[in-house]
Amino acid sequence: MKLPLILNGDDVTLDGDTRESLFTVLQREAGVFQEKTNCRKGTCGRCHVVLDSKEVPSCLVPFFQVKQREVVTPEGFSQTDEYRQFRLILDEEGLVECAECTDVQIFHLFSYLELFPQAGKEECRMVIGEIPCRCGSRPVLERGAARWLERKEAVRVGRR
Amino acid sequence: MARAKKKSAAEDPHFSPEKELFHPSLPLLLAGVTIRSEVPHARIVGVVHPPLPEGWTMVLPHDIPGNPMFQVLRSRFPVLGDEVVQYVGEPLALVAGPDEDEVRWFASQVRFVTKNLSLDEFVEDSPHLKRKKVIGGDKTQALMGVAGTMEVEGVYSSGPQDHGHLDPVEIMVQVTPQVVGVRLKTQWPAHVVGSVARALDRDPNEVKVLGTVSSGTANSQVWYPSLLAVHAALLSQASGKPVSMKLTKEEEFLFSPKRPEARTLLRTTLAPDGRILSLMADVVVQTGAYGVLDDEMLDRTVVGILAPYKLGHFVVNAHAEASHTPPRGPVGGLGEGLGLFAIESHVHDLCRALGQDPAQWRTEQTLTKECSSFSGVPLRADSPLKMLIPQLARSSDFSRKYAAYELMQERLERFQEEALPLRGIGLAAGFQGNGFLAGGTNPVNVEARLEQDGRLSLYIPIVTANNRLVQLWKESAAAVLQIPVTDVRICPVFTGDHPAGGPSISSRAFEIVPRLLLQTCEGIAQKRFRQPLPITVRKVYRRNKGPAWDSDDFSGKPFLTFSWGAAVAEVELIPLLAEIRIRKISLLIDAGPRIDEASARNAVTEGVQMAVGWAITESIQWENLTISHQSFLRYRLPGPRELPPLDIQFFEGPKETAPRGLGSLGANLVAPALLSAIRQAVGPDLKSIPVSRKMLDEALRYHEASFDSER
């Protein structure tokens, strides 16, 4: 079954089976999530994508449901200016990158901020905590998110 | 036209595993699945399974071409359970086919005919029970002339803990006549090489392992990935095709090694001035089936109990208890955390019995330079705890708060009635032992090669995801050779390309590699302009001379180095909800100079999170010798609600040049500090972790009842 969709801003047609999940097809056909396995239960956050502005675990989305829809993956998001600027802040804060969660956490945070632009620091802290990981980068991500919000606020006040 | 003979992969120094073996569009990749035992202890009589579809492969124990035993240091157990099954989930057979779902269905249809065996077979002389008895000092002499002694006794227990990695394990193996290519996450690629070579009866030089990075190590990937690699390699060998094995999240949770449970009875005889005249300890460490790494874990647990304080006389009876449950392994440290948890929780009881401030008692009772260590090694200086404890107590305002919360505890009745939050503060001090006790690990070695184009290639057998650490390695090498950092390349950890080493534990990455790196680069600098390029220099780390550790009589120097630290945890408890809120955790750490401040903080934070989970949120229940499904569903790593602000300070010691490991310090210190804080808030009866809501509720009810009876 070949389905057209918009993947990270590009029109593509992917070939997959009706039984397959979006994660499996994206991994095999589009070469995304190459270095990642996932829990296949929708809990680990490793395979999250934004499907028409809503963040979903791609391992639980049947491939046939994405016809003509827009999909953004963490790989796609990591090419954006927003991501690069946020990474600079994190590097200044002393981020020790975690191979399992860093990009997923950033993607998850920005997907939330996209839906709820007025979110505050405490909300961001909770959102970061939703992706469970053993690594010690969470305090740095929280500080980075706080600085990002301050920067956004400064821009907003400046415009006014 | 005759074609040039292609070099075999084993001979080719430029063999690229990514291109040759693990290309994403690898053809004919089979999915491998493990068939596991459904009974805890039984004799296998036969196996029944549906007909194997064409192109599929099944491997049983008698199909293993090489050694059927898997080895981790001194421990050995079968690669596939053969005659007797020892635990639910033990791998018994392997199957591979083109479609993973179909293979999983097939695996579910395979039935092993078994004859159940007794579950309490482990007798006194069983090899499954490892025993140690450690005695030091003379009791009569220790007690002589001391009047008014006091005895304090307590039993302290800690539960299992999962490694909690986000990613389930995924392994890819391709066996060809020339080479065995393995790609997986592991802390110890050299162990994978040895294990796969032994099972397939191949030359270790033909096994090439590409180690990929994972999140913080937590020491959970020391030996388990090697076993899975052997399974995948057996399937690939039998099928002649590349095989990928993925564990499901549930499979991994139920059967991967957990932190061992420990139960310690401590009985101390105290002098009126607080000295420990005599300590009697009875330690049981649960190591699961086959007692994997039981020597290492048992020794470290005992060292954890005996190392921090002055002891007039001690007797420790310790045993590692095997059971018909999955093997335990190193998670969040290799064992000293279990011992420290017991002794530090016991010190809480000692101080209450003596009516002393825990910070003051600890400062007075830590070892001084006049003492010898428990293992008979004379000390050259006072224990670093002598400086760390008072400094942390001052900065965290421990003594004042401890006294205030003790008063609050006396007025618990009023707080209960008015539903006010209860508060407690706890202190713990201790260490992390750097290096393995038992030996048998691969030495750390670093190779640097200045290429013909002037660029530097570094071969470091440490698998790390720490981008900052890698950058620092590059910068320090570039600085010695005065070349741009961009000209320094850290080669991927790929056995065969560089000398083997491992396992990758944080003390090696932070403590040994930077030293070796400097030495190799200085070696190249000396030869540069005198020898033609490329120039290769390799340095191997050798343990310092000194009294070696003797596991049988507990003498000598147990670790390469010690890293010391102290932690203070402050908690608040809302009685109505029986909910713990951690207000703050402060740590003061002496682990030498930091080569990167952010990496050091990250490592300590990782350990603290692990401790908070171990002490509060991460609970595992056993049902019929297997982890209950509910535990899998409800297992929860600590989230933002549990994790408080952290105050991590580093002690700046004089004249120290080399950093020491600190990855397990947070886990070793914070768990006992948290339990002490909780006990101060709700009463002394809680002596085990994780502290569940039910346990808190019971502790509060017990106190209510005691107040009622006083009325």
In short:
The complex is a heterodimer of chains A (160) and B (711). Chain A is of the alpha+beta class.
Describe this structure in words.
The complex is a heterodimer of chains A (160) and B (711). Chain A is α+β, with helices and mostly antiparallel strands. Chain A folds into 2 domains: 2-77, Ubiquitin-like (UB roll); 81-159, no CATH class. Chain A has 6 helices and 5 strands; from the N terminus they run E-E-H-E-E-E-H-H-H-H-H. Chain A has helices at residues 22-30, 74-77, 81-93, 102-115, 121-129, 138-159; strands at residues 2-7, 10-15, 48-51, 54-57, 70-72. In chain A, strands 2-1-5-3-4 form a 5-stranded mixed β-sheet, with helices on both faces. In chain A, a hairpin with a 2-residue loop joins strand 3 (48-51) and strand 4. Chain A is globular. Chain A starts with a strand and ends with a helix. In chain A, 44% of the residues are buried. With 711 residues, chain B is α+β, with helices and mostly antiparallel strands. Chain B has 3 domains: 25-119 and 185-204 and 216-243, Aldehyde oxidase/xanthine dehydrogenase, a/b hammerhead (Aldehyde Oxidoreductase, domain 3); 262-436 and 552-710, Aldehyde Oxidoreductase, domain 4 (2-Layer Sandwich); 445-540, Aldehyde Oxidoreductase, domain 4, CATH 3.30.365. Chain B has 18 helices and 28 strands. In chain B, a hairpin with a 4-residue loop joins strand 23 and strand 24. In chain B, helix 9 packs antiparallel against helix 10 (385-395) and helix 13 runs parallel beside helix 14 (506-527). The longest helix of chain B is centred in the C-terminal third of the chain and has 22 residues, at 506-527.
Return Rg of chain A in Å: 16 Å
Biggest pleated-sheet summary of chain A: 5 strands, mixed
Number of structural units classed as domains of chain A: 2
Overall morphology of chain B: globular
Helix count of chain B, per DSSP? 18
CATH-assigned homologous superfamily of the largest domain in chain B = Aldehyde oxidase/xanthine dehydrogenase, molybdopterin binding domain
Estimate percent helicity of chain B. Answer: 25-40%
Number of strands of chain A: 5
Distance between the termini of chain B: 104 Å
